[in-house]
Amino acid sequence: MAGAITEEPAGVHPWVGAALNGGGDWRLRTWVPYLLGLMMLFDSWDGICIAFTLPSIANEWGLGPVQSGWLISAGYGGQFIGAVACGAWAERQGRLPVLKPIVIVMCLLAIACGFAQNYGQLVAIRLIQGITIGGALPVAISYINEIAPAKTRGRFFGTFQFLMLSGYGLSSLSSAYVVPNFGWRAMFMLGAAPLLLVPFLYGLPESPRWLAARGRLDEALQALRKLGGHPVEADARTDTSIQQTMDKRPTPAVLITPQYRRRTTVTWLLWFLTSLVSFGLVTWVPSIYVSVFKIPIAQSLQYSAIASIFIFVIPLVLRQTIDVVGRRLPAILGAAIGGAALVSLAFVDHSLTKLIVTLTITGQVGASIGSMVLWPYTAEVYETRVRALALGSASSLARGASMLTPLAVGGVLAMTGQIAPVFMIFGVSAVIAALLWVFATKETAGRDLDA
């Protein structure tokens, strides 16, 4: 079965996973998903606030659909680069040494966006900031999954994911108040808030799984102790052959070797299709409401806020259920229901505003469920030695899809003024993703990640 999970290769350190799953005083570890979740909240805020500021920016600078598309795509283009580059960087240098500088630069560039004086400047800044936005998230998620206990990893990650994804909802809700009262520049500047949290990162130890995978066993033991784990017996961690095997540093090419090729193909397809739909909708829906369905800007932001409220709740539901029902079932249902709603939109009369909004929100929510599940699924289907690399590559495909979507939507609207083909593409993509989940994946809930 494509995407089937194979056993970990020779060269793992099972004592690290045993310690993380065992007893101890895990108070520091308990706070990690909250700290990183709040920090990444503004990663998602920075990534998506362009959608809710674009109507005002386009009005102020007289931008057409194609120019608006390039402005959105600039950020996603940077994220495409950052996800791959920073994932590979994190495999070489570690999770936290990469995450710290990325977050700092991301915040400084958020401030710079607020001071952009023209279209060209904002495009350039968004491109550069996108590198940090795209790079931070895969690294943070690798760290979160690598320190989580296996039995409750879904709940542990769900706490982080709820806070991280809250940036999308909060950006939408806040825009309805901030943009009319303080202007679009204030929305960007609020994205610098994680600077206040960076000092707390220096109190966290490096991922013990990553340290052990690099043969740095004494440091891995110290990291476990700092997180709160019980001491590990010396004879359980003295396999030098393992150290030599795992000290080899993988390159991106490893993901398409026979060992990983099938799961990588399926994972990449899921990321591309899901992101094509979810990011395409969230970035373009406010503008589509205004330009195609002739809904006033203030009302279009309110409708987007309603969708964001539903999306805001999804991580809470997944947090409580994903360890029980697994990863696949929510993703299948979300993609199938969302896809059906989006296909239906291609045939709805433009005057039926309530029906249009209902189907659009259903499509957004369905796509968001699949997008949320992909993060823990991808982290669990790959082992520690390539986890950040795999997440980075998958995320880069997501950013690639996100980068192409605004240009495609903007081009279709500019040339034809018709939105039906756009919704049809989104709907069919979601249905294909649902079929991939059904026929090409295996469940990963509760799987021991083994270093």
Task: Describe the protein's architecture and organization.
With 451 residues, this protein is mainly α. It has a single domain, classed as Growth Hormone, Chain: A (Up-down Bundle), CATH 1.20.1250. Helix content is 76%, strand content 0%. The chain is built from 17 helices and no strands. Helix 3 runs antiparallel to helix 16 (387-416), helix 5 (119-147) runs antiparallel to helix 16 and helix 6 (153-182) packs antiparallel against helix 13 (297-325). The protein starts with 13 loop residues before the first helix and ends in an 11-residue tail after the last helix. Residues 1-11 and 239-247 have low confidence and may be disordered.
Q: What kind of sheet is the major sheet?
A: none
The CATH H-level superfamily is MFS general substrate transporter like domains
Specify the structural class.
Answer: mainly alpha
Reading off the top of the CATH hierarchy, the class is best stated as Mainly Alpha
Gross CATH architecture: Up-down Bundle
